[in-house]
Amino acid sequence: MYKLNWSGKWLKIKGKYEVIFKMKIASVLPLKGELQEKLAKMTGAKVVTEASVAELAQAEIILGWDEKVSEVLSGENKIKWLQAWSAGVDNFPLAELAQKEIYLTTASGANAPGIAQQVLGYLLNFARKLHVSYDLQRAHQWEIPAGIMELTERKLLIVGTGSIGQSLAQLAQAFGMKVYGVNTYGHHVMNFNDCYAITELETVLPEADFVVNALPLTPHTKHTFSKHQFSAMSDKAYYISVGRGQTTDTSALETALKEGMIAGAALDVFEEEPLSKDSTLWDLPNILITAHTAGQTNFYAERIIDSFLLNFQYYQQGLAPAKNLVNYDLGY
Amino acid sequence: MYKLNWSGKWLKIKGKYEVIFKMKIASVLPLKGELQEKLAKMTGAKVVTEASVAELAQAEIILGWDEKVSEVLSGENKIKWLQAWSAGVDNFPLAELAQKEIYLTTASGANAPGIAQQVLGYLLNFARKLHVSYDLQRAHQWEIPAGIMELTERKLLIVGTGSIGQSLAQLAQAFGMKVYGVNTYGHHVMNFNDCYAITELETVLPEADFVVNALPLTPHTKHTFSKHQFSAMSDKAYYISVGRGQTTDTSALETALKEGMIAGAALDVFEEEPLSKDSTLWDLPNILITAHTAGQTNFYAERIIDSFLLNFQYYQQGLAPAKNLVNYDLGY
């Protein structure tokens, strides 16, 4: 049985009184009452929200990340597990956490269904020309835009087969799309018709009608989409970027759009955010720009807590959390 | 065995020569070569496309409808079956066809997947505020619109559970929506969580986050959505109209949008089409207008021919076509 370590209470066990310490979980963020209760009930721990530095220093598990946590981490503390509130952890002190042997689990997947839905929104705008109809509406013009199609049987290439890619693949299958994935080794993933290794990217790009970049940012993924990749794409294909801005070479994309090397793009993430008012991207032909909105979801906290509670069942038994655990060697 | 009636050829059958007449199928429209071949091969009939009046008068089955067919119908002809090229048949001389006992099958379902996809496009624009982001993009403004949500667990009420409703229900389920249907008798339909009778419409409307009108136009459906129905809807709910324009009372909808009785609307069909340049609808708050584009699909002819060929297997045996056969009493 796992040793509980804080805020003890006396309990009669086998005829003797023993001090049972209660684990402390501290959340940086506020949590809805019902979620806080669920967390306390299912872990048996004392749950503190909007925790102070002192409270964070006493906690074994911390939910969320800010400067306070960073401060606590460098001093004396009891931290064994950090549950990040973001999917990407490229801004975390990974080397320090690795050295201190602290588990770091991400919120990966918590906003994946929302991102996948937003990507379908972009795809449907492009396929059904809804953004073109919106322009026509503004001009009071009754006109059927050219080139309206169904997503049915169109080829979707998802680069990055993590939780976003998987959610997206599942939705795209419902539309009758042919769904292909690209990941590190080309291993097969559910809901994909086929998967290819990242080394094969340029070979599979020409076939795709829609290319979705859902890559994490790692030392290996910077500018994965650059001049060569856009050249390899069909000039009837659309590029959608919802992973991390730095995985796209913005100036190469700009050239590709201007020169008609690809049919259009939807971008939710950028090399520099916020996108400056005088960026030339805003007015490129056939571009849809959203202000890093794809991850917005009304289910975020619920899904992180559910993922955390799954992991807690292992942690409680002295095992490492398994879901969304950061591999410090890979950096994600 | 069905009697074939045109363009005979001699065939040796059981040692004797017999005249085998070849049925004639005439299409009003041009057909892609491969579809024409498929049709000829699978029916054994002679297939004429872009048929003249004389050719139409000789045909037992006519694909499509125009003034020529109307002319042929009123004179001497061999027509037994009309395969419409549209889903709605409210513009056909139904009484005349009923009286002449001519089968009329519709193209219902041929554009249903495309319409369903376009409806998902509207829903995702509303849920993910993509149209709001598009306005912000035009203003070079980096801003996360308020109220972005997932479709997950939202309640979708589809009024009309025909082929459009069914395609839509299937897609919506993939998004984790709760899908309810309204049809004449409230009979259950696949992919709907529950179905209600049209008499219960006003009782179920208040619960819906999205209401999709996919009704056919019949003597019973005119202005199904009028003042009372919009009042019954939640002020956070969206109305989407993709069936027939006349099933919506436009002026009541306009009032509902102006007074904030509903959150927004997407309209693809209108009481008067084309929508005039000076219509007040174009600039209503939170409205998306498309120029009857939802039915646009790159699979239209293929799906009609497939449906026709399914029916042909029955017809060939002297039975009535079953799929999409118009019931002249109901008018659809």
From TrEMBL, chains A, B:
Stored InterPro entries: D-isomer_2_OHA_DH_cat_dom (IPR006139), D-isomer_DH_NAD-bd (IPR006140), NAD(P)-bd_dom_sf (IPR036291)
Keyword Membrane found: no
Entry annotated with the keyword Oxidoreductase: yes
Keyword list, A-Z: NAD, Oxidoreductase
Span of domain D-isomer specific 2-hydroxyacid dehydrogenase catalytic: 49-327
Pfam family, one: 2-Hacid_dh_C
GO molecular function: NAD binding; oxidoreductase activity, acting on the CH-OH group of donors, NAD or NADP as acceptor
CDD domains: 2-Hacid_dh_1
Annotated ranges, domain D-isomer specific 2-hydroxyacid dehydrogenase NAD-binding: 121-294
Highest taxon in the source lineage: Bacteria
Family: Belongs to the D-isomer specific 2-hydroxyacid dehydrogenase family.
Name this polypeptide is given: D-isomer specific 2-hydroxyacid dehydrogenase nad-binding protein
Native source species: Ligilactobacillus equi DPC 6820
